[in-house]
Amino acid sequence: MEGELIKGSAFNYRPLVPLAIGLGGGVIIAMHIEGAAAAVAALPLLMLAYAAYKLNKRMFALFLFGAALGFVRMLPLTLGSKQALDILLQNAKYSNTGRSELAGLIVDKLAARCDELFIEASPIARAILFNDRSKLEYFQGELFRTVGVSHTLALSGLHVSALSAAIMYVIPASRAKLRAVSVSLFLCLYCALAGFPASLVRAAIMFACILFAPLFLRKADTLSSLSLAFLLIVLIAPLSVYSAGFCLSFSAVLGIAMLYAPIMKRLPSVMAPAAVTVAATLGTLPFTLSFFGTLPLYSVFANIFIVPLITLGLVLSFCSVVLSYIVFPLGKLIAIPARLLLDASEAVSALFAKLPCSLIELNGFGGAGCALYFASIVFLSRYCLMPRRKKLIMASVFLLLAGLTLIVP
Predict the structure, then answer these.
(1) Is 359 strand, coil or helix?
(2) For residues 206 and 221, what is the distance between their CA atoms, to the nearest angstrom?
(3) Cβ 75 vs Cβ 37: under 8 Å
């Protein structure tokens, strides 16, 4: 639902946004507080939230309530030993899968079918279809990361939109309810088979919001649906806020939501794909540096070529696997162009990786630097209602402060 404009406010009122920000802040702060102390700290936050609500400060009230909720949600984890919490945190950082035993057996069968259909391109097909990277060579993953297109291998919005579009193609637009239910059921099954990676769950929730909003006579809103996805994922798995997949997925969409419109105001419409890539790259910049310490120099150009190849290859691969269980020769036939597209994406990645200075090493942002950086993005976005001159001044100040955190220890 679109945000409500409050007179005198610098931002549109979207209730889920301050709630999500408060929840994330509460979870992060609670990590550094003992369980009992976190419970005690939640009480004054709830009292302040109630006071802010009475004073008609709704955004601030929701932010405080979200922070208190984060403290409470972390209680079961922080009440245990510090060593156990550290183990959980490490698992959250480097593990993206929660696949059940049944889902694992199904994926194994589907992966074996991929080996039959796609031959040498099977490792990439398995990765982009089922989040199965067991056969993906180390150099292949590093190759895509070096040129800044590793997101094409991680199940996310690209995969959700492409596969959902394939399903929606066979369902008439007049059957909106059937479309919404069918695609939502498919996405639930797909998330289960993939092991519920945060990037895929985020994309599935946001796509479901787009499908169901018109049915409830509402207009889908990117920030609200992104915040809803954040709330649901963090409430279920609070330590996911520390994982690379979670941070990169949410920050990429946030960057597009905040910066795409301002960038496109200064570019011709034909440059829309490049604008999306630039906005997503700027959104993920702090986390890219924090997690990897490197910056892919040619990522914008690489994405323009590789994303279409992977997208079309993904749809054809999906159709090939499905049809192979109906008429195997037909599935095998469709696998040929899919294999060529996946091989081409790897070849193009290799070409970009060979360019000079394809990967630049830089220092990473700390927590304060990330917060300041994203504050500057918020002020530059269309969601900030301040006068343009004031927006630019505020954004410049916060960006300068964020840059200083890279220099000053």
Answers:
(1) strand
(2) 9
(3) no
Terminal Cα-to-Cα distance of the chain (whole angstroms): 42
**The pTM of the whole model exceeds 0.70:** yes
Adjacent-strand bridge partners of 296: 359
Low-confidence ranges of the chain (pLDDT < 70): 1-11, 80-88, 91-98, 408-409
DSSP string, 275-311: HHHHHHHHHHHHHHHHHHSEEETTHHHHHHHHHHHHH
Residues 6+ apart with CB under 8 A from 407: none
Task: Give per-residue pLDDT as tens, 127-184.
Answer: 999 888 888 888 888 889 888 888 888 888 888 998 898 889 889 888 989 999 999 9
Give the Cα separation of 200 and 205 in Å (integer).
9
- At 318, which amino acid appears? F
The SS3 call for residue 360 is: strand
d(CA 262, CA 255): 11
The residues facing 295 across adjacent strands are 360
Residue written as token pair 């007049």: 174
CB 82 within 8 A of CB 32: no
What's the CA gap between 168 and 340, in Å, rounded? 25
Structure-block tokens of residue 352: 């970009």
